Amino acid sequence: MDYISIPTCALNRQISTVIVRIKMDVFDQSCPSENCPGLDCPKILESSVCKKCSRTRLNSIYSDCDSDKVGKYRSYKFRAVKSRYVNVCAVACLLLLVGSWSPGSSAAPYKSRNMERQKRASEEENPLWGNPCVYGSTISKTEYEPKFAENLARHAKYVFEETLKYKDEFVKLYSYDTFDSFYNQMNNKNDDWLRNFPWHLDDIMPKNKVLYKSLDEADLEELMKHIDDVLPYMYKSLKMVVAGFHMIAENLINDNIAADANLAKNIKDTVLKLSKVLCLFFDMITSRDLKVLPLLNNEIPVINDSNILKNAFPIYRDTLNYLEYLSQVFQTMSKTDLTQSA
After folding, report:
1. Is the Cα torsion angle 239, 157, 329, 216 positive or negative in sign?
2. How far is CA 139 from CA 57, 133, 142, 287, in A?
3. What pLDDT digit, counting tens, does each position of 51-61 carry?
4. DSSP type of residue 2
5. Which parts of the sequence are annotated with region: Disordered (predicted)?
């Protein structure tokens, strides 16, 4: 047999396959008329020299061997044989490439890319709270006016009242009939949610701020003296409130429990209303030239089927308390001259 060179692709793998081709009689491109006199090829020569003369005519009434009748004949090549060899070589190379990949070598790049995507995603911010106003790349700044704070106070109070409307339905997750009975039972437990994040400052939501109770006016007036130092962190905490409600709604939607469907809808509606408050807060932050702190995905605690009941009530309770507190803070801001500190 006649061995041909191994394809380059086979040399680059750990396992190589040698492709061999059976030696064939390759004839000259011309057909001497003395060996193949036209179409009357002698039987004795048919299996050897004149085998090349018995090809089927394609585009001509003459065969390639009718050199005495056709002045310029087509040169004959073993096209079929060559094409078969090329196809076999291509398939063999493909099999070598696929077959030599081990599960580890093929999975490693995919795993690496997947981990890189997850890392990038964890360092990004969900646009639901990262861009609540759905602004483009260019944001036009508006000079601060007290009406910004007054508008914020009104919206925060509205969302507080709307969220409070389904409080009894919410605690049915815990098999309680009324929110107040469950709240009074849980009130003495040290299960703060919003106050536990690392950026939390006492002025974001003071310890003495509890649900259904307002802060003293003196405390609020004291806060106004350094309100610009606190507002960026208050804004980030409101982002976390939106994120917390969003995660609760997603879990209730996915649990396929019919009794939770209406509650999930109410919470989704609250997320949209909270986004409106967050948008107004963003406009006020930028109007006072304050830093907008991001809430990255890796800063948000995971809420799933295994811990939703542990986290849902603290999130709901702290959201109500925080909205009530924000409405008081912004109402005080609207009455305070903050032009010198802006």
Report:
1. negative
2. 76, 10, 9, 11
3. 444 444 344 44
4. E
5. 105-124
Q: What are phi and psi of 309, to 5 degrees?
A: -70, -30
pLDDT band at 88 (very low <50, low <70, confident <90, very high): low
Question: Which range has the worst mean pLDDT, 18-22, 43-47, 124-128, 203-207?
Answer: 43-47
Q: Are 335 and 146 in contact (CB under 8 A)?
A: yes
Q: What is the dihedral of CA 148, 149, 153, 158, to 10 degrees?
A: 10
C-alpha atoms less than 13 angstroms from C-alpha of 64 in its C-beta half-sphere:
17
Farthest-apart Cα atoms in the chain, separation: 123
Handedness of CA 250, 252, 255, 256 (dihedral sign): negative
Task: Write the DSSP symbol of residue 133.
Answer: T
pLDDT digits (tens, 9 = 90+) for 115-164: 555 555 557 999 999 999 988 767 777 899 999 999 999 999 999 999 99
Q: pTM of this prediction?
A: 0.66
- Ramachandran category for residue 63: left, alpha or beta (phi over 0 → left; psi -120 to 50 → alpha): beta
